[in-house]
Design brief:
The chain is globular. It is mainly beta and about 170 residues long. It has strands at about 10, 15-20, 25-30, 35, 45-55, 60-70, 80-85, 90-95, 100-105, 110-120, 130-135, 145, 160-170.
């Protein structure tokens, strides 16, 4: 392709020119490193990732959400888990069945991990302060331990941590 890149046009990997379609407004990053035992009951928060997520403008901006959760498997071959956004003094917004991937053996007692990745469209949640939880939608969906450490195995010499990144962007 021929042409010149500028602040609104770039050359894609397939050698075609394209215009910028989204602008990152803010990157919100949270960590939680408390070793936590899973709860087998349906409709339970497994743990709180943060209680202080304040989006800039969720009415007009999309939120690209990624979460990585180290764990030790309970031996569940399927998991009905997701992220709950709970507005302070307001409503709950559950996100089940969106980009959940269980990484690892799935065998009881083995190191495992969960990843969650999805886009929350602008207007899904109102402005406010949110707590974000890992939540079980269905019974027997939990991991045995979240954020394992050396009490679980000597090879985990440093406390592991859950990481949540929320990219607030506008198209």
């Amino acid at each position: 392709a021929t042409g010149t890149a500028d602040s609104t046009t770039f050359l894609r990997g397939d050698n075609a020119w394209s215009t910028v379609s989204g602008v990152l407004k803010k990157m919100h990053v949270f960590s939680m490193s408390t070793r936590t035992t899973g709860n087998a009951s349906a409709g339970t928060n497994q743990f709180t990732i943060t209680s202080s997520f304040i989006p800039l403008d969720p009415v007009n901006n999309d939120l690209w959400i990624t979460c990585v959760i180290p764990s030790i498997s309970e031996g569940q071959n399927f998991a009905g888990l997701g992220l709950r956004f709970s507005k302070s003094g307001g409503s709950d917004y559950d996100n089940f069945g969106k980009g959940l991937n269980q990484v690892g053996h799935g065998l009881n007692g083995y190191q495992n991990g969960l990843t969650i990745a999805f886009n929350m469209a602008a207007g899904t949640i109102p402005a406010g302060t949110y707590s974000v939880y890992l939540r079980a939608e269905t019974a027997a969906s939990q991991e045995d331990i979240y954020n394992p450490n050396s009490t679980d195995d000597a090879r985990i010499s440093t406390q592991s941590s859950t990481h949540l990144s929320i990219m607030e962007w506008k198209n």
